[in-house]
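Side project, low priority. Logging it here so it doesn't get lost.
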Amino acid sequence: MLDQSFISSNYSYSVNLSILTSIAVAGIVLGNYLSDKIFKNKNVLELISLSYVIIMLQLFFIFTSQSIILIYMFSLVIYIFEGTISPKFTLFIMDYQEYKDLGMSIGLINTFIASVLPIQLSFIMFVVNAQGIMHGLIVIALSSIIYMILSIIMLKRRK
Protein backbone atom coordinates (compact mmCIF):
# COMPACT_ATOMS: atom_id res chain seq x y z
CA MET A 1 0.00 0.00 0.00
CA LEU A 2 0.91 3.62 -0.40
CA ASP A 3 2.48 5.38 2.56
CA GLN A 4 1.59 8.96 3.48
CA SER A 5 4.92 10.34 2.27
CA PHE A 6 3.47 9.45 -1.13
CA ILE A 7 5.69 10.71 -3.95
CA SER A 8 9.44 10.81 -3.73
CA SER A 9 10.79 14.07 -5.11
CA ASN A 10 13.84 16.20 -4.46
CA TYR A 11 11.81 19.36 -5.08
CA SER A 12 9.46 21.26 -2.83
CA TYR A 13 5.71 21.26 -3.32
CA SER A 14 5.77 24.68 -5.02
CA VAL A 15 8.48 23.63 -7.48
CA ASN A 16 6.59 20.45 -8.39
CA LEU A 17 3.39 22.48 -8.83
CA SER A 18 5.23 24.96 -11.07
CA ILE A 19 6.64 22.13 -13.17
CA LEU A 20 3.19 20.55 -13.51
CA THR A 21 1.71 23.92 -14.51
CA SER A 22 4.40 24.34 -17.18
CA ILE A 23 3.73 20.82 -18.42
CA ALA A 24 0.01 21.64 -18.58
CA VAL A 25 0.57 24.74 -20.71
CA ALA A 26 3.02 22.96 -23.02
CA GLY A 27 0.72 19.94 -23.35
CA ILE A 28 -2.34 22.02 -24.21
CA VAL A 29 -0.43 24.02 -26.83
CA LEU A 30 1.02 20.84 -28.32
CA GLY A 31 -2.42 19.20 -28.28
CA ASN A 32 -3.96 22.16 -30.12
CA TYR A 33 -1.24 21.86 -32.74
CA LEU A 34 -1.70 18.10 -33.11
CA SER A 35 -5.52 18.17 -33.16
CA ASP A 36 -5.70 18.48 -36.94
CA LYS A 37 -2.48 16.61 -37.67
CA ILE A 38 -2.33 13.27 -35.86
CA PHE A 39 -5.81 13.06 -34.36
CA LYS A 40 -7.67 14.35 -37.41
CA ASN A 41 -9.78 11.21 -37.92
CA LYS A 42 -10.66 10.68 -34.24
CA ASN A 43 -13.89 12.09 -32.87
CA VAL A 44 -14.14 13.89 -29.56
CA LEU A 45 -15.82 11.06 -27.66
CA GLU A 46 -13.13 8.56 -28.66
CA LEU A 47 -10.44 10.98 -27.49
CA ILE A 48 -12.24 11.58 -24.19
CA SER A 49 -12.52 7.83 -23.58
CA LEU A 50 -8.85 7.36 -24.43
CA SER A 51 -7.86 10.18 -22.08
CA TYR A 52 -9.70 8.47 -19.22
CA VAL A 53 -7.78 5.27 -19.91
CA ILE A 54 -4.56 7.29 -19.70
CA ILE A 55 -5.71 8.82 -16.39
CA MET A 56 -6.36 5.33 -15.03
CA LEU A 57 -2.88 4.23 -16.14
CA GLN A 58 -1.41 7.29 -14.45
CA LEU A 59 -3.21 6.44 -11.22
CA PHE A 60 -1.99 2.84 -11.44
CA PHE A 61 1.61 3.99 -11.76
CA ILE A 62 1.16 6.50 -8.94
CA PHE A 63 -0.13 3.72 -6.70
CA THR A 64 2.69 1.34 -7.62
CA SER A 65 5.83 3.34 -8.38
CA GLN A 66 5.48 6.73 -6.64
CA SER A 67 7.76 8.31 -9.26
CA ILE A 68 7.40 12.02 -9.95
CA ILE A 69 8.85 11.52 -13.44
CA LEU A 70 5.96 9.18 -14.34
CA ILE A 71 3.51 11.76 -13.04
CA TYR A 72 5.14 14.40 -15.24
CA MET A 73 5.08 12.13 -18.31
CA PHE A 74 1.46 11.04 -17.91
CA SER A 75 0.40 14.60 -17.12
CA LEU A 76 1.95 15.77 -20.38
CA VAL A 77 0.03 13.11 -22.31
CA ILE A 78 -3.22 14.00 -20.53
CA TYR A 79 -2.80 17.71 -21.29
CA ILE A 80 -1.96 16.93 -24.92
CA PHE A 81 -5.30 15.14 -25.10
CA GLU A 82 -6.99 18.10 -23.41
CA GLY A 83 -5.53 20.45 -26.01
CA THR A 84 -6.66 18.09 -28.77
CA ILE A 85 -10.17 17.64 -27.38
CA SER A 86 -10.93 21.34 -26.83
CA PRO A 87 -11.21 22.46 -30.50
CA LYS A 88 -12.88 19.19 -31.49
CA PHE A 89 -15.43 19.61 -28.70
CA THR A 90 -16.24 23.12 -29.92
CA LEU A 91 -16.79 21.73 -33.44
CA PHE A 92 -18.90 18.93 -31.96
CA ILE A 93 -21.14 21.52 -30.28
CA MET A 94 -21.34 23.56 -33.50
CA ASP A 95 -22.53 20.51 -35.44
CA TYR A 96 -25.38 19.71 -33.07
CA GLN A 97 -26.53 23.15 -31.95
CA GLU A 98 -28.74 25.58 -33.83
CA TYR A 99 -26.92 28.69 -35.00
CA LYS A 100 -29.09 31.14 -33.02
CA ASP A 101 -28.28 29.36 -29.72
CA LEU A 102 -24.64 28.59 -30.48
CA GLY A 103 -23.06 31.49 -28.58
CA MET A 104 -25.15 30.86 -25.49
CA SER A 105 -24.40 27.11 -25.57
CA ILE A 106 -20.64 27.52 -25.90
CA GLY A 107 -20.66 30.23 -23.21
CA LEU A 108 -22.66 27.98 -20.89
CA ILE A 109 -20.28 25.06 -21.45
CA ASN A 110 -17.21 27.25 -20.85
CA THR A 111 -18.81 28.60 -17.65
CA PHE A 112 -19.65 25.06 -16.56
CA ILE A 113 -16.11 23.85 -17.19
CA ALA A 114 -14.62 26.89 -15.47
CA SER A 115 -16.77 26.37 -12.37
CA VAL A 116 -16.88 22.57 -12.10
CA LEU A 117 -13.13 21.97 -12.23
CA PRO A 118 -12.33 24.12 -9.16
CA ILE A 119 -15.24 22.55 -7.27
CA GLN A 120 -14.00 19.05 -8.10
CA LEU A 121 -10.44 20.00 -7.17
CA SER A 122 -11.66 21.50 -3.88
CA PHE A 123 -13.59 18.33 -3.11
CA ILE A 124 -10.57 16.13 -3.83
CA MET A 125 -8.32 18.35 -1.70
CA PHE A 126 -10.91 18.19 1.11
CA VAL A 127 -10.85 14.39 0.95
CA VAL A 128 -7.03 14.36 0.90
CA ASN A 129 -6.83 16.68 3.92
CA ALA A 130 -9.56 14.87 5.85
CA GLN A 131 -8.79 11.24 5.03
CA GLY A 132 -5.33 11.11 3.44
CA ILE A 133 -3.79 10.90 0.01
CA MET A 134 -4.95 7.34 -0.66
CA HIS A 135 -8.60 8.32 -0.29
CA GLY A 136 -8.10 11.31 -2.60
CA LEU A 137 -6.60 9.05 -5.25
CA ILE A 138 -9.51 6.64 -4.86
CA VAL A 139 -11.94 9.53 -5.47
CA ILE A 140 -10.00 10.48 -8.62
CA ALA A 141 -9.97 6.86 -9.79
CA LEU A 142 -13.71 6.41 -9.19
CA SER A 143 -14.61 9.67 -10.93
CA SER A 144 -12.39 8.72 -13.89
CA ILE A 145 -14.11 5.35 -14.16
CA ILE A 146 -17.54 7.01 -14.05
CA TYR A 147 -16.53 9.57 -16.69
CA MET A 148 -15.06 6.84 -18.88
CA ILE A 149 -18.26 4.77 -18.68
CA LEU A 150 -20.38 7.82 -19.53
CA SER A 151 -18.12 8.63 -22.49
CA ILE A 152 -18.40 5.07 -23.80
CA ILE A 153 -22.20 5.21 -23.47
CA MET A 154 -22.27 8.52 -25.36
CA LEU A 155 -19.96 7.10 -28.03
CA LYS A 156 -22.21 4.05 -28.54
CA ARG A 157 -25.34 6.22 -28.75
CA ARG A 158 -23.71 8.43 -31.38
CA LYS A 159 -22.92 5.47 -33.65
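Brief comment: The chain has one domain: 13-158.
Revisit when time allows.
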